[in-house]
Specification:
The chain has about 220 residues and is an alpha/beta fold. The chain has seven helices and nine strands. The structure holds S-adenosylmethionine. Its EC number is 2.1.1.244.
Length: about 220
């Protein structure tokens, strides 16, 4: 096995090992910043509501996909209140097991819990109104991210939307050895989106997060 291939294998397997040890809680999902979840969700609701509804060009509300869903923090407070059904995909089976409990009554409206790395996952073609990808792109290599976004584009229903919400670095690629991820700057994220053949139709910075953490940006793509 060549070095690059080996590095890639360990990039993914180290991340899997890391997440297996993380508590299946909101705090665990947010690296100890559980308290910012409400601000995050409210910001996402305002962002998403701009696109949803009836009428020309509006995004439907039938089905959403939560990518790197963890215990379903976003599914519970953002997606299930807005969409009829939601599917979850995550590489950590323990989190998906916890999601069923965390979501309570509303778990009835979850269609599927897919246990898979996004690098290997192909969402069903033409199936989703919104594909939400939050705090997980740093776990994919550039090539896998581009290919995953291309598969997501095929998985959209008419007027569907892909949303990336993630940390952005000030400049360049900043590796995190602890959870085996990388943080890219906004220019790099935009260039990977363009490489995937997607268009950025709206972009915002999440406000009111603690000053010491990375800036978080939300991008709507189709
Ligand atoms: C920082 S948590 C974010 C969870 C959720 N998106 C949220 O905001 O509450 C990262 C999640 O990504 C998952 N993950 C890590 N690498 C992944 C991969 N290659 N494919 C799919 N999920 C992955 C982890 O299991 C974990 O649930």
């Amino acid at each position: 096995m060549g070095d690059i291939a080996h590095d890639e294998v360990s990039f993914y397997s180290n991340a899997e090992d890391y997440w297996k040890e993380v508590p299946a809680t909101v705090d665990g999902m947010l690296g100890g910043y559980g308290s910012i979840s409400i601000i995050d969700i409210n910001g996402s609701k305002d962002f998403l509501r701009k696109f949803l509804g009836e009428g020309e060009g509006k995004t439907g509300t039938r089905c959403a996909l939560d990518c790197g869903a963890g215990i379903g923090r976003i599914t519970k407070r953002l997606l299930l209140p807005l969409f009829s059904t939601v599917d979850l995909v995550d590489v950590t089976q323990e989190f998906l097991d916890k999601a069923k409990i965390h979501l309570g009554e509303d778990s009835k409206r979850v269609g599927n819990y897919f246990c898979s790395g996004l690098q290997d996952f192909a969402p069903e073609n033409g199936h989703y109104d919104v594909i939400w990808i939050q705090w997980v792109i740093g776990h994919l290599t550039d090539e896998h991210l581009v290919k995953f976004l291309q598969r997501c584009q095929k998985a959209l229903r008419p007027n569907g939307l892909i949303v990336i919400k993630d940390n952005v670095s000030y400049e360049g690629v900043v590796p995190d050895e602890v959870d085996s991820s990388i943080c890219r700057d906004l220019a790099i994220v935009r260039s990977l989106v363009a490489k995937a053949g997607l268009r950025i139709i709206h972009e915002e910075q999440q406000m009111n997060f603690p000053k010491e953490i990375y800036q978080v940006h939300t991008l709507a793509l189709r």
